C-alpha cells in the first residue's frame, strides 16, 4: 500500500514557534525522510470559515502567511503538495455523503468540539457547519487516501471520527476508503509550548507568541521580557525550572552545540538547570542564552521567508500547482466513492442499461 501523508492548518494567523516545535519541524523531517509516496498539506480555509463566517477577510489574508511560514520552515514544494481546501470542491461533495454516516449526538460528543464551543462562547448558537467540521476533516483525510496524519493531540478526536466514518462507509458500500493512523508529536513538551507570559497556551489572542516572521529585534525584546520564576528574586536565590517558560523553550530548542558555542560553562541543559535550581544564575543570563538559541533556529527561517516574500508570484504558482495535484487525487477518490454508492450515473452505461432491462 502507498504511504501517504496528509495534514493541515487553519489559516487564521501567522504561525509561531509553538507550531514549529510541535509540528512544522516534524513535517519537514517526514518530508525529507523519503519514506512517503505522496505528501499533502492543506490550508484549511473552509474549515476556518466554520467559525469565522463573519470575517472571511481574515482567512483570505492569512492563506499566504501560512504558505510563507511553510516554505520558510523548509517545506519543499517538490516533495510536498500545498493546497487550498476550498479550491478542491470534491471535499464538500464527500462531506455531504459522510454526514449521513454520523449522528448529531456523535458530533456533539467530540471532546475537541466541546472545548472549542466553550472557548468560543457559542452556547446554544452553534453553527451547523462548525459542529460538522470533523466530518469535513474526514473528507480531507480520506480524499487523499492518507495513511498517516501528523497532528497535535487535540486532533485525536478528529481522527477517531474519521476512522468511524471510514469503517461505516466500507461496511455499507464495500471497501473503498483507507483508515488513517495518527502521528502525535514525539516530545510531549514540544507539543504545546507555553506562552511568553507563562500561560499554558501560546495564542494570538493572548498576544504571547514568538512568530516565525518576527524580526531579530522583536524576538529579543519578547524573550527579555518573558515570564520566569517569580520566586527567583535575587541571583543567589534558588530557582525553579519546572513550569518556567524560559526553561521549557530551552528544552524544546537547545542542544549541546549551543552550549559549546554560547555558554561553555555548561555542557548541556541538565547542568544549567541544576545550577539554576541551586541558585547563582541570573534570569537575564539565561534569557540571553535562550535568545542566542532561538536566533540560530529562527535566522534561517526568517531569511527563507524574506526570499519568498520577494517572490510572491512563485508562491502563487506553488499553491496553484499543489492545489491542481490535490484536486486530481480528490477527483479520483470521489469517483470511487460515488461508484461504490452507485450514484455514478454518467460514468459509464451500467446504470442506464439496468434501467432499460427493467422496462423491456
Ligand atoms: N483541524 C486542524 C487544526 O485545527 C486543521 C485540519 C483541517 C487538518 N483538515 C485537516 C489537520 C486534515 C489534519 C488533517 O489544526
Automatic annotation (TrEMBL):
Domain of life: Bacteria
TM annotation in the entry: none
Pfam families: tRNA-synt_1b
GO cellular component, one term: cytosol
Keywords in alphabetical order: Aminoacyl-tRNA synthetase, ATP-binding, Ligase, Nucleotide-binding, Protein biosynthesis
BP-aspect Gene Ontology terms: tryptophanyl-tRNA aminoacylation
Catalysed reactions listed for this entry: tRNA(Trp) + L-tryptophan + ATP = L-tryptophyl-tRNA(Trp) + AMP + diphosphate + H(+)
Enzyme Commission identifier(s): 6.1.1.2
GO molecular function: ATP binding; tryptophan-tRNA ligase activity
Keyword Aminoacyl-tRNA synthetase: yes
SUPFAM superfamilies listed in its UniProt record: Nucleotidylyl transferase
Keyword Cytoplasm attached: no
Family from the record: Belongs to the class-I aminoacyl-tRNA synthetase family.
PANTHER family in the record: TRYPTOPHAN--TRNA LIGASE, MITOCHONDRIAL
Protein name, UniProt field: Tryptophan--tRNA ligase
Native source species: Candidatus Coprosoma intestinipullorum
Gene name, Swiss-Prot/TrEMBL: trpS
Amino acid at each position: 500500500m502507498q504511504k501517504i501523508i496528509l495534514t493541515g492548518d487553519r489559516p487564521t494567523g501567522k504561525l509561531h514557534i509553538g507550531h514549529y516545535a510541535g509540528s512544522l519541524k516534524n513535517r519537514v523531517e517526514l518530508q525529507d525522510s523519503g519514506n512517503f509516496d505522496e505528501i499533502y498539506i492543506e490550508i484549511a480555509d473552509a474549515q476556518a470559515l466554520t467559525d469565522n463566517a463573519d470575517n472571511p477577510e481574515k482567512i483570505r489574508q492569512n492563506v499566504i502567511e501560512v504558505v510563507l511560514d511553510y516554505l520558510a520552515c523548509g517545506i519543499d514544494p517538490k516533495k510536498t503538495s500545498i493546497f487550498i481546501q476550498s479550491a478542491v470542491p470534491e471535499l464538500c461533495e464527500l462531506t455531504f455523503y459522510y454526514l449521513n454516516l454520523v449522528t448529531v449526538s456523535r458530533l456533539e460528543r467530540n471532546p475537541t468540539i466541546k472545548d472549542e464551543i466553550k472557548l468560543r462562547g457559542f452556547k446554544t448558537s452553534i453553527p451547523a457547519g462548525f459542529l460538522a467540521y470533523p466530518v469535513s476533516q474526514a473528507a480531507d483525510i480520506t480524499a487523499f487516501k492518507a495513511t498517516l496524519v501528523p497532528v497535535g493531540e487535540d486532533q485525536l478526536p478528529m481522527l477517531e471520527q474519521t476512522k468511524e466514518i471510514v469503517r461505516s462507509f466500507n461496511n455499507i458500500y464495500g471497501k473503498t476508503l483507507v483508515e488513517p493512523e495518527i502521528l502525535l508529536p514525539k516530545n510531549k513538551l514540544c507539543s504545546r509550548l507555553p506562552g511568553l507570559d507563562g500561560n499554558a497556551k501560546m495564542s494570538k489572542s493572548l498576544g504571547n507568541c514568538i512568530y516565525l516572521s518576527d524580526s531579530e529585534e522583536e524576538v529579543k525584546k519578547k524573550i527579555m521580557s518573558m515570564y520566569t520564576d517569580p520566586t527567583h528574586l535575587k541571583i543567589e536565590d534558588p530557582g525553579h525550572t519546572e513550569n518556567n517558560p524560559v526553561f521549557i523553550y530551552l528544552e524544546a530548542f537547545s542542544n549541546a552545540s549551543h552550549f559549546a558555542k554560547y555558554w561553555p560553562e555548561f555542557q548541556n541543559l541538565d547542568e544549567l538547570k541544576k545550577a539554576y535550581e541551586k541558585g547563582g544564575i541570573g534570569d537575564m543570563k539565561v534569557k540571553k542564552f535562550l535568545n542566542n538559541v532561538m536566533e540560530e533556529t529562527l535566522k534561517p527561517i526568517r531569511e527563507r521567508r524574506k526570499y519568498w516574500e520577494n517572490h510572491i508570484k512563485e508562491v502563487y504558482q506553488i499553491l496553484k500547482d499543489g492545489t491542481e495535484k490535490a484536486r486530481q487525487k480528490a477527483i479520483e477518490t470521489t469517483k470511487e466513492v460515488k461508484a461504490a454508492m452507485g450514484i455514478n450515473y454518467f460514468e459509464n452505461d451500467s446504470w442506464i442499461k439496468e434501467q432499460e432491462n427493467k422496462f423491456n
